[in-house]
Amino acid sequence: MKFSPIDTSILDWSGDALAVGLFADRVELTADLAKLDDRLAGTLKETIAEVNFKGQSGECIATRVGGGSPIRKAILVGLGSAEEPQLDEWRIAAAAAAKAARTQKCKTLAIAFPPYKEDAVTTTEAIVEGATLGLHQDRRFKSQPDENDFEVETIELIGLAGQEAAIDRAGHTCAGVILARELVAAPANEVTPLSMAEMAQQLAKEGGFEIEILEREECEQRGMGAFLGVAQASDMPPKFVHLTYKPSGSPRKKVAIVGKGLTFDSGGLNLKTGGSGIEMMKEDMAGSAAAFGAAKAIAPIKPDVEVHFISAVTENMISGRAMHPGDILKASNGKTIEVNNTDAEGRLTLADALVFADALGVDAIVDLATLTGACVVALGDQIAGIWSPDDSVAEALVAAGEKAGEKLWRMPMEQKYFEGMKSIVADMKNTGPRPGGAITAALFLKEFVDKTPWAHIDLAGPVWTEKESGYNNPGATGFAVRTLVNWVLA
Ligand code: BES
Ligand code: MN
Ligand code: ZN
Question: If you classify domain 172-489 with CATH, what class do you get?
Answer without folding.
Answer: alpha beta
